[in-house]
Design brief:
With 232 residues, the chain is α/β, with parallel strands linked by helices. It has a single domain, classed as Dihydrofolate Reductase, subunit A, CATH 3.40.430. It is 18% helix and 28% strand. It has five helices and twelve strands. It has helices at residues 6-9, 48-59, 68-74, 141-150, 162-170; strands spanning 2-3, 22-30, 34-36, 63-67, 89-93, 113-117, 128-131, 155-160, 176-182, 190-191, 207-213, 219-228. The model has no long low-confidence stretch (mean pLDDT 89).
């Protein structure tokens, strides 16, 4: 593993292609892999420098994508208010029409809101519907990425929640993963990763990874899922 300044890791994001958007994902967790307590409390597991890094990531993408459960639970704005830069479009995966009409992201005017939803559902205004046919268990990540690419959204940040991130990872739809690990141990609570089980270590993901330690204690792992390392 190589060590690099946090600012040097942002340009490592791959360039978007003509036929497919590039997908970056991020997850903030504790040392023992938890993203929230048993009651759902998660603000703030990661420190301020990790939050700054997340906002820098947002400033480097065209769209931030979350599941509707994240919107309902956390009421996030998904903006870059902690750093300089342009606010990305907000994309919400909402297969069953659960997006609250009073969500602040619909009224702040910071950036457009797109809602991935079934063709028979209409999201609350001014959100723009992106209709997709669902598959078993939800929308296919590759279909979501293709639909966003068609809208001109070429760099996508998958920010949450854990179930949405797991679906994208299981589908092989993530190019670069940023994992922010806080020096904290909960011992219980919601897990950050719950992927499809593998039978052997040969099936495990082994991304080429760089590491950066922030001054306030968090450690950032940037994992290039397009490239794998092999043990000698």
């Amino acid at each position: 593993m190589n060590y690099a300044p946090a600012e040097a890791l942002l340009p490592l994001m791959p360039e978007a292609g003509e036929t497919r958007s590039v997908v970056v994902a991020q997850l903030g967790q504790t040392l023992d892999g938890r993203i929230a307590t048993v009651t759902g409390a998660s603000k703030y597991i990661n420190g301020y420098q990790a939050l700054d890094h997340l906002h820098r990531l947002r400033a480097h993408v065209d769209a931030v994508l979350v599941g509707v459960s994240t919107v309902v639970a956390d009421d996030p704005r998904l903006t870059v208010r902690r750093v300089d830069g342009k606010h990305p479009a907000r994309v919400v995966i909402d297969p069953n029409g659960r997006l609250p009409a009073d969500w602040g992201g619909l009224s702040d005017g910071a950036a457009p809101v797109y809602v991935i939803t079934r063709p028979d559902l209409t999201p609350p205004p001014p959100a723009i519907a992106v209709p997709l046919e669902p598959e078993a268990g939800g929308f296919a990540p590759d279909a979501i990425v293709a639909a966003l690419h068609a809208l001109g959204l070429r760099r996508i940040l998958v920010e949450g929640g854990a179930d949405t991130l797991a679906r994208f990872l299981d589908a092989g739809a993530v190019d670069l993963l940023h994992v922010l690990v806080a020096p904290m141990i909960l011992g219980s609570g919601k897990e950050g990763f719950r992927l499809a089980p593998v039978d052997s270590l040969d099936e495990a993901l082994r991304p080429v990874t760089r590491v950066h330690a922030f001054e306030d204690g968090d450690v950032l792992f940037t994992c290039d899922l397009r490239r794998s390392w092999q043990r000698d």
